[in-house]
From TrEMBL:
Family matches, as Pfam families: Transket_pyr
Lineage: Bacteria, Bacillati, Actinomycetota, Actinomycetes, Kitasatosporales
Protein name: Transketolase
InterPro entries registered for this protein in UniProt: PDH/Transketolase (IPR051157), THDP-binding (IPR029061), Transketo_C/PFOR_II (IPR009014), Transketolase-like_Pyr-bd (IPR005475)
Residues covered by the Transketolase-like pyrimidine-binding domain: 2-167
GO function terms (MF aspect): magnesium ion binding
SUPFAM superfamilies listed in its UniProt record: Thiamin diphosphate-binding fold (THDP-binding), TK C-terminal domain-like
């Protein structure tokens, strides 16, 4: 199976052929994969070199000129390093674009902490009007990229090397809903498993681990590939189907733990509830290891997740 990043390169190349309003802006990362696109569309495939602030500035400038930019590099260099440009050149200027990251929280451990961005979604959460998409499979990455490219809002698509074993269908929409979304899909949490004891929300590539961790437990599992806007209505429906006077909600996210706990709390203003936010810990894991080692180190492997979830539910 190809990776999400492979699929992004192939899909973005086809999108340049299909839609003349699109441009791809790079900062060296993934440059070699776009050689053919650069030959076919030299005016719409722009590589600024290792200049991440310029990367975002060029994307914002293109958007001001009526172009729909697809801007790509590692998450640490797309969100964290040029955050001021993301805030001003897109948000303050009131223009849209598609930011597509690779690297995620710990996809390349040998690169060290400079190439990890577990806080990227939390950082984007401080800005107004961004839709945040976290696909869990290359097929979902392609669908969400096409969805975002067809729109005119501000979209952040977070790719990862970690992938679920199979793609899940995105939720169809009758029309455009939510900031930053295109036609064909709407932001929403899909029900993968139904239960009456608790609700567990699995974000993107965490779904397979969550399903393994909750096997045999009386839990509803919701699957989120778009986390902003947060689907409070789906959470309220799932909570309403639980037994008991109070609700337990567990969020399992592939980035900073607790990023969406406030959104979950806000979705349940009149319901007695508890929320457990699981994700990447604030502490830095300083040993390189492999991706699987970082999952286990942050308690996001199936065994650790089951222990943490069952302990929370038993309290």
């Amino acid at each position: 199976m190809d990776t999400m990043r492979d699929r992004f390169i192939a899909t973005a190349t086809r999108l340049l052929d299909e839609d003349p309003r699109l441009a791809v802006v790079l900062a060296e990362i993934s440059r070699d994969g776009f050689d053919e696109a650069a030959r076919r569309h030299p005016d719409r495939l722009i590589n600024v070199g290792i200049r991440e602030q310029l990367l975002i500035g060029v994307g914002g400038g293109l958007a001001l000129a009526g172009v729909r930019p697809i801007v790509h590099t590692f998450a640490a260099f797309l969100v964290e390093r040029p955050f001021e440009q993301v805030k001003l050149d897109f948000g303050h200027q009131g223009v849209g674009g598609v930011l597509v990251s690779a690297g995620g929280s710990y996809d390349w451990p040998a690169g060290g902490f400079t190439h990890m961005a577990p806080g990227d979604v939390a950082l984007m959460d401080t800005l107004d009007g961004w839709a945040v998409h976290v696909p869990g499979h290359p097929d979902e990455a392609e669908a969400l990229l096409r969805h975002a490219a067809a729109g005119d809002g501000r979209d952040y698509v977070r790719l990862s090397l970690q992938s679920n074993s199979r793609a899940r269908p995105l939720i169809p929409a009758e029309g455009r809903t939510g900031t930053g979304t295109g036609t064909g899909f709407r932001a929403g949490f899909a029900t993968v498993r139904e239960g009456r004891g608790a609700v567990v929300i699995a974000v993107g590539p965490m779904l397979d681990n969550v399903l393994a961790a909750t096997e045999g437990l009386d839990t509803t599992v919701l699957y989120a590939t778009t986390v902003r806007p947060f689907d409070g209505e789906a959470l309220r429906r799932a909570v309403a189907a639980l037994t008991g006077d109070a609700a337990d909600v567990v969020l399992v996210e592939p980035y900073l733990a607790g990023t969406s706990t406030a959104a979950a709390n806000d979705a349940l203003p009149t319901t007695p509830h508890r929320v457990l936010g699981l994700g990447v810990a604030r502490r830095e894991l300083r040993a390189y290891g492999e991706l699987a080692d970082h999952l286990a180190g942050h308690g996001l492997d199936p065994r650790s997740l089951r222990e943490r979830i069952t302990t929370f539910l038993a309290r």
